[in-house]
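INTERNAL AUDIT FORM
Audit reference: QA-55
Scope: verify that the stored structure record matches its stored sequence.
Auditor: D.O.
Record contents follow.
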Amino acid sequence: MADKQSVVIIGGGPAGLTAAWELVKDSADRFDVTVLEASHEFGGISRTVKHNGNRMDIGGHRFFSKDDRIMRWWQEVLPLQGAPSYDDAKLGRHHDLEPGGPDPEQTDKVMLKRHRLSRIFWNQHFFDYPISLSPNTIKAMGLWLTLQAGFSYLWSTVHKLPEDNLENFYINRFGRKLYSMFFEGYTEKLWGRHPSEISADWGAQRVKGLNIWNILGNAFKKLIPGRKADNSKVETSLIEEFWYPKLGPGQLWDVVAQNSVEKGAHIIMGARVTGIRVQDGHASAVEYVTDNGGTVTLEADHVISSMPLNHLADAFVSGGVDVPQNVVEVAHGLPFRDFVTVGLLVKKLRVKNTTDVPTLGNPPIVPDNWIYVQDPGYKVGRLQIFNNWSPYLVADPDNTVWIGLEYFTAEGDDFWNMTDDEARKFAIAEMIRMRIIESADDVIDSHRERVPKAYPAYFDTYDRIGELTSWIDSLGNVYCVGRNGQHHYNNQDHSMATSMEAVANIKSGREDKANVWGVNTEKSYHESK
């Protein structure tokens, strides 16, 4: 038998581990696979952080995809629940259970089915998410603001602006009034730039096809008696149910890593890639530094990279490759938005559950997965209530509420550099002002987590990214996958799909990368199906 082809995978997040499993699950005799992960955790920003018996999901990860092969893939790793979860049983909720599926009260290796509810917090009121001119919105806004928003929207349907930036993209779909209330300040909070400075590509990718008519249409369909929601035919932002690993997203990636190792993959933790060598127009070796400072070189027939593109360009330079100056310039100019999440374990919430969705707790908590803080008066961008993602993320879901405050920031700025205690006090003060909690005495525990390069941004040299990707693609055996690996705001499923396409190319010998870069840009991968 011919020698195995060596594949070096940079990164142990969703993209990297998907590539590893796709290579070894049925082709271990053909490929010698090594995964290099700089940290000591699997999952990247899809990891699960553990703190004093409670678990944090960094950023919140709904397991839902328009790509059926991804849904099947997830279910093969963690089978769907066949019995009620802890909170479902206590509240008498009945999801469509999987015949013969595992009981989440008896085993951890199970995928839960969860109801999805997210709302917007603005001016001390909760609004539907995504925003729409629904009865709830009209009541919260009042008649005068509603009339302004309505006429503004009608004007936007006949007076279209050129979609050469994100501001115009939103105005065309929601009208200038709703844009100024709910999108302008939040977008600037998220990206640190005004929407007029950001490419419309981000909006087209994240909310393609989403507008007031789609939102209202989906709401009216819910009123039809006996109608069951069909998630395959609604925008991703409107889905009503999703899957979720019992112990958070990192649990799934821990299992994938274990499965890959059992099939022969090598996974090296604490391995920071510093150099990539090129010979005869193809990558030939990858260099990495270990925790103890030693340098190791691995020969490679193929390289699959999920590392940020600026780090990838630097690795080529360090490997002695003559990288064109314009390519280095574009790579170093690609911007990122960083992320800080502060977890607060509290005795109770001050905010009351005014929905018809039953919840646990004494008093009962609100049922939201996310609360988007689109009020510009607060620095926090989004709240997660981990109890509602999975009761198993919380050590005592009956008597405590585990919330995550998400702050969009820049690595090294004043907020990033706060001490843990300063960040805790800042977060508590905002929760009191928002009337989410009563006082600091309600806080039992806290944890702060910094996440660099969480969101690839669409400004600065982003409009020249083709110069960079074209040069990388000229190296036939280098594949860029994942969110940071492509500098593309991919969801978890999109990141996985980029690796599936890359592995398909390696197996077939295809060097053209159009299918790899095309994920989440082609219609079949977009927000609507």
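Auditor finding: record pair retrieved intact. Residues 166-191 form the longest helix (26 residues).
Action required: none
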